Amino acid sequence: MNQHVIRRSFDRAAASYDTAANLQRRVCQLLLDQLAEPAPARILDAGCGTGYALGLFGSRWPAAQLTALDFAPAMVAAAKAQASGVCANIEALPFAAASFDLYWSSLSFQWCDAARAVAEAARVLAPGGRLAVSSLASGTLAELHAAFSGVDSHRHVLEFSPPDTLAQACAAAGLINIRWIKQTLRFHYPILPALLRELKALGANQVGGSRRAGLMGRKTWQAVEQRYESRRETAGLPATYEAILCTASKPVS
Ligand SMILES: C[S@@+](CC[C@H](N)C(=O)[O-])C[C@H]1O[C@@H](n2cnc3c(N)ncnc32)[C@H](O)[C@@H]1O
């Protein structure tokens, strides 16, 4: 995956992101529910986007010191009102070892190398610190993948990792108390372009569909729409997301 292209998509989408981030808000709340007390003193939100999780931290742990990191400058600018903002890559964190008591990252790891990102998380966590990460696993947008498959030689939907990828990366990084669950979330859309527009508004057009759909011939596009239509339910066209919620901690010594 080309990180420059991904970064540019998210940078452009910072202004529209909040209008479309229903899945992202649901997953943040589900991930927060996985965390027990005590309150962490220093929290890093890695891949913060516009900073939705920072508001949740502020309500639950008002005394915590918040740092928001993202590689898209416009996302950092949006999150900055609620935390100190840092523009950097999750895979190479610009922090000293043991800088944080909670490492948080919601729905950003599907865009990067999870093993590298978790190794960095483990490095910047203080002994006894906790990690909470959500990502998307294989099966995500399966309907979109099926609708596009075979229409041309391009892969139209991002290849998502197996569900246990995060847990394995945590174990490899020496983290303990590793727990993970998979939550299947489904949303419905009146028409296929509504789903593609939402992905674009999120900056997630690299995830599937919308980028290449614009370049397709009319006949090919109609074939894609017809295939998706065959899955229509009473609520509309379904889109499935397989969210992984993973928590772990760094050994005290
Ligand atoms: C789907 S958004 C999630 C944002 C936020 N965590 C939320 O839940 O609303 C993914 C974010 O991760 C950021 N991101 C993706 N890969 C990254 C990387 N390698 N380093 C830093 N940020 C990254 C993107 O710029 C984007 O803001």
Net shape: globular
- Helix-strand string: HHHEHEHEEHEHHEHHHE
The helix fraction, in percent, is 25-40%
On the 0-100 scale, what is the average pLDDT? Answer: 92
Count of DSSP E strands? Answer: 7
The stretches of 5 or more residues where confidence is low (pLDDT under 50) are none
Strand coverage percent: 15-25%
Number of helices: 11
- Domains counted in the coordinates: how many? 1
The level 1 CATH classification is Alpha Beta
**Whole-angstrom Rg:** 18 Å
Could you give me the name of the CATH homologous superfamily?
Vaccinia Virus protein VP39
Strand order of the largest sheet: 3-2-1-4-5-7-6
* Ligand names: S-adenosylmethionine
Helix and strand composition category: alpha/beta
Report the CATH architecture. 3-Layer(aba) Sandwich
The CA-CA distance between the termini, in Å, is 36 Å
How would you sum up the major sheet? Answer: 7 strands, mixed
CATH topology: Rossmann fold
Protein architecture, described:
The chain is an alpha/beta fold and about 250 residues long. It has a single domain, classed as Rossmann fold (3-Layer(aba) Sandwich), CATH 3.40.50. It has 11 helices and 7 strands. The chain has a 7-stranded mixed sheet with strand order 3-2-1-4-5-7-6, sandwiched between helices. It is globular and about 60 Å long. The two termini are about 35 Å apart. Bound molecules: S-adenosylmethionine (SAM). S-adenosylmethionine binds near residues 52, 106, 107 and 111.
